[in-house]
Amino acid sequence: MAIVEKIRIRFSKSGDIRFISHNDLMRTIERIIRRANIPIAMSKGFNPHPKISMPLALGVGMSGEDEILELELLHHEPLDLVAERFRRQLPEGIRIVSARQIPLSERGAVDNVTYKIIFKNKDILQTLKIEDFLTEHSIIIKRMKKEGQKSVEIRASVQKIGRENDALFLTFRLTPDGMPRPEEVVSALGVDINNELFEIIRTEVNISSV
Predict the structure, then answer these.
(1) How many CB atoms are closer than 10 A to CB 158?
(2) CA-to-CA separations, 50 to 20, 26, 59, 97, 110, in angstroms, rounded
(3) CA 162: distance to chain centroid?
(4) I need a surface site. Which of 11, 46, 102, 163 has the fewest CB within 10 A?
(5) Other beta carbons less than 10 A from residue 160's beta carbon
């Protein structure tokens, strides 16, 4: 059957459920859709799966205040009804922020994201080498991969760094090489991430339609 409707849901994820992996989150969403009796479209082939997608995975242990989920439906149902059915099945820690219908041809591509870093030791904020970081044209960090250590350039992706209300805010744009991890930038700002305690919250995921 042809897909007739596409819905974009923005949701928050916090509390203990932030420790589940992206794959486990997607499986949780699949169960929610089945229990909510949402007319989700299925992929073709020998192993069909629900037509659901998230433009950007959220790292294990991170909270998200504005995450994006897209659903493709087989027939029209009132948006409020779909959102309410979905909401009733949500586990503790996940909350719908908004839901809207989007054109079938629209696909959300990540433009930029913002992270909020909260340090247990607030004095760390005064020691961050923000100006030094921003004046650099290139910053290379080492990232461990399965095949070994890899050099990664992170400066080009960092759009903005700021301090506000006892927290650090980092805004990254998507580049052909991807985006840095928040903790990599925190380390590049002079923080010993192995000895300092901090919480990472993704506050915004901005997308452009393609």
Answers:
(1) 20
(2) 20, 10, 22, 22, 22
(3) 20
(4) 46
(5) 12
Q: pLDDT digit string (tens) for 127-146?
A: 999 999 999 999 999 887 77
What is the DSSP code string of 12-79? EE-GGGGGS-HHHHHHHHHHHHHHTT--B-B--SSS--B-EE-SS---TT-EEEEEEEEEEESS---H
Cα(151)–Cα(18) distance, integer angstroms:
29
Residue 123, C-beta contacts closer than 8 angstroms, at least 6 positions apart: none
Tokens linked to 93? 């820690």
Which two tokens mark 146? 């399965």
**Which tokens go with 1?**
């059957």
Give the model confidence (pLDDT) of 21-52 as tens digits: 999 999 999 999 999 999 999 888 788 889 99
Distance, CA of 36 to CA of 46 (rounded, Å): 25
Rounded Cα–Cα distance for residues 161 and 141 (Å)? 18
| Token pair in block for residue 120 | 């247990």
